[in-house]
Write a structure and sequence with these properties.
Number of domains: 1
CATH topology: Rossmann fold
Strand content: 15-25%
Order of helices and strands: EEEHEHEHEHHEHEHH
Structural class: alpha/beta
CATH class: Alpha Beta
Strand order of the largest sheet: 1-2-4-3-5-6-7-8
CATH superfamily: Alpha/Beta hydrolase fold, catalytic domain
Distance between the termini: 24 Å
Length: 226
Amino acid sequence: MTDHASVQANGVRIAYRTYGTNGGVPLVLLHGLGEGMADWAGVAPVLAAHRHVYALDLRGHGASGRPGTYGLELMRDDVLAFLDALSLGTVDLIGHSMGGVVAYLLAAERPGRVRTLILEDVPLPVPRVPPPLVRPEGPLTFDWAMVEAIRPEVDRPDPAWLERLGLITARTLVIGGGPDSHIPQERVAEMARRIPGATLVTIPAGHLVHEDAPEAFVREVLAFLP
């Protein structure tokens, strides 16, 4: 069974879905750019057999608010405010792609709030040659203005983000999608090297590991979570 709800956090409505009612440290899931909480539907019920799971729509996505002001650090602050609003103290955190950026920014900013960090095919915060930005045709489940604001931060990230990876104290698992991912895997490996004590595994499923190899993804996640 899943429940849908929303909460005001950092001045914006954050929609979320919960799975399971098991006790212990909550498990929070953060989706990639242009995705949403439904993106986790294939793995969240399995994870919820062991944990109380929260899947969020980040600002500008899905059923969450579209305030017109966007940034990855704003999303980080939204998630922190979400945790406070629900009285979730310390959490385990999984982030995919852009959601992984939000996750490591949070873990570096507030190390005491994240016990375990799992980063799924997340880009290292270094400049890259940006691919073309083309708006999809038809109605969107996200605010295109959000994409236009976020993409430059991914293409030319704040140099401080790279250094702040060394501030992360959470037990960290870095999952790479292998050669079929558009994320350079040598940079995924560099991410793992820069986070103290991080473990690196590769699941050769491409960028959408949790969708295209859900059983392998869940197996690695459950083996790593305390």
